[in-house]
Give the backbone structure.
Amino acid sequence: MRRKRFVVVVALLALLAAIAEPAYDHVQGAAFVVRAAGMQGTPRAVANWVAEDRVAVSDVTVPWRGGELRGRVYRPPSPGGPPALVVPGVHAGGIDEPRLVQFAEDVASTGRVVVAAELPDLKAYSITPRTTDMIEDAALWLATRSGHARHGRVGVMGISFAGGLSIVAAARPPVRDHVAFVMSFGGHGDLPRTLRYLLTGIQPDGAQRPPHDYGVAIVLLGVADRVVPPEQAQPLREAIRAFLHASHVDMWDKAQGQEEFARARRLAEDLAEPARTLMGYVNDRDVASLGPVLLPHVAELGGDAALSPASGAVPTFPVYLLHGTDDNVIPAVESSLLAATLRERGAEVRQLATPLITHAEVDRSAAARAVWDLVRFWSSLLDER
């Protein structure tokens, strides 16, 4: 029944496109949603009417003040509008992560050049101020020196923790006048606030939601040298990275994932105390025991001004905040609170929390109203010039 409602919505949008030119932007939004959700059959056929399937993909080197970043260009046959810089979140796959690749291709299929830039610290599960510098420099390069931005303006799309960092980066003076829009896809508004949720399961609005257990592992990785003796910090970090790698592998290969989790447990057995106990909490996904140990270090780990858009410069461009209502990595209330803060400070913000999104990933089924809301969100964003 849900699938039928989805087909009806998309078909009606296609009919509107034949009647009224303004509806075309909504068809573009619908086409994006269909492709991002991996829909087939009638919805995909309608989406293909307006999508550009022949996206050319090539590698590129993106300069930043500290060196170079791996990049990848997705170019449709007839690009138009500002190119989009896409930056992935905390994930070992970086720009090779399959969902990130699909997202970049889906955006490019709407007719704009996409450049994905890899952020090495986030790829290594570390949220750092210099990552914001990387996003700033990559956006400025794309706008002024890449050859892809004819009018010197770009959009920036940040996934997960890169979403909040992208807003901070794009609002900085060197690049802000070149920014057409920024989208935060499942991102945070205040990093210490988000980290407290991951360690306690209590959202900023007081609601309780069990957090994703990998969050405590990322926090422990960042503060390892503050909770164990110096000689234990590096072996502990190696064990944590083994666990995080196992979590990544487990998404695609359950059998191999279990082998990698077993390796993380073996590394834990070789650790001295207290590192061994802390790593045991990680392997057991014991947020309740590990969270209180890490909570005193949240402000120091995430308190740099470069890490939280809620306290950064006011954006002079439209900000789009997209979030899954049931996100247990960065709760959806983060986008709601950030939207309120930015609006109070005079920024233009469009915010949507939707059941169609998990954590920075489009779901494959939904009621017609939720689909329509998501279509309108993407239609507005894709119309930005």
Observations:
- Residues 1-51+361-385 form one domain.
- The chain has 17 helices and eight strands.
- Confidence is low (pLDDT under 50) at residues 1-24, 42-47, 359-366.
- The CA atoms of residues 89 and 162 lie 5 Å apart.
